[in-house]
Give the backbone structure.
Amino acid sequence: MLYKTITVGETLKKLESHKHFSKINEVDFDYLVNLAKDEPTLLFIDSAQSEKSTLEDWLYAFTNIILINNSPIRAFLLKGNSKKENTFKNYYRIIGDNNPPETIARKLLTMIEKELSRLSGKSRSIIELKKMLILSMFYEGSVLFLGETGTGKNLVSEIMAKLSPRWDKPFYSLNCAAIPDNLIESELFGYKKGAFTGATTDKDGLIEQAHEGTLFLDEIGDMPQNLQAKILSVTENREFFKIGSTKSKKVNVRFLTATNRTEDTVLRNDLRYRLSAIQITIPPLRDRKSDIPVIVDNILKNKGYLLRFESLPENIRKLLLDYSYPGNVRELINMIEEYLAVNNIMYFKDIKGIDQQIKTLANEAITSYVTDKKTYRNFLESIHDRITKELLDIRFPELEYNIKMLSEEFGLTPRRIRDLLNKHDIKKPEKE
């Protein structure tokens, strides 16, 4: 489960939720604060059915108390059948609409589910990433995405912008590695007529166009240092100069950035600190191979094919699951395109596959014997134990704690699986 929903107000009674309260003064504040910390909670309140003074106390609580207790609760105050508005303050949002409160809540939940579904997969790393996106719905600061090329940094930034308080404002993106250095400045800051040869009209840059919205700068590590200094100035002073202008312009832009380069030298330290209040690492595809069948199914479905991963030839399925994907999801998409075009996949298998890993482990076993007199049998038993625990850690929650399905994957009896779970202290979370 990615998140819980709690509803307040009789008009929201029909909405499926973890818990429902008829009135705001019936809500047990201690109950909210003590909700499971690993699952975000979305609280929907029909403000028309709440006393103003009580509601104001709750708004104060969300600004000053919830944050202190570090409880991941986010509140939506719904003003049904009213003039449309979308205001935001820290950990609550007021949303007005000409529709009834239940309709507004359903629209919000549908939007959340639609955006999160764009991230294919059920692996632990993807589940945690989706939870982070839910928590960030009420965060206005800058975010730095770290990840290899092709992992989906652009997609994640689009989802984050759509779920943010600026969801109905402009979203623009720029790949800093795809544009020549001498053009990036004019793309970002714009220019005045006559600023340079060829500037025949004024041009608004992306920073100005993204006013009150979000600007995503991909591969910011490839941006020249002098432009990084100008971006820093925008984030600190909320103003910028067009090329050729002597008058500054005020701007309100939220910056999302990404890089596949983690070395300290690619970003100015002051800019790194400014842009990375939150850092989110997007995992490479080779670390979440259990997601490959889901991703392939979604690719085929979106292209209108009835074909699915399980119906692909066995050799193709094995190839797709064995490959290490240096180009990540983008490379997988290209491989599926190739298969659909020529009914085969041609690729150069890298040497860092399982064969290379086996050689590395064999050398470690020899070293272990020489240094610690640990026999190969002891070494192999230790490796088997560690791999078993890792598989259980990954697949047990992904299979929704289904012992039978887990036993089928391991080729063991359910009783043996339970023994292994107890041995490694892996448990199904208790329901509240």
The first strand starts at residue 4 and ends at 8. The chain has four domains: 4-116, 139-281, 285-342, 354-423.
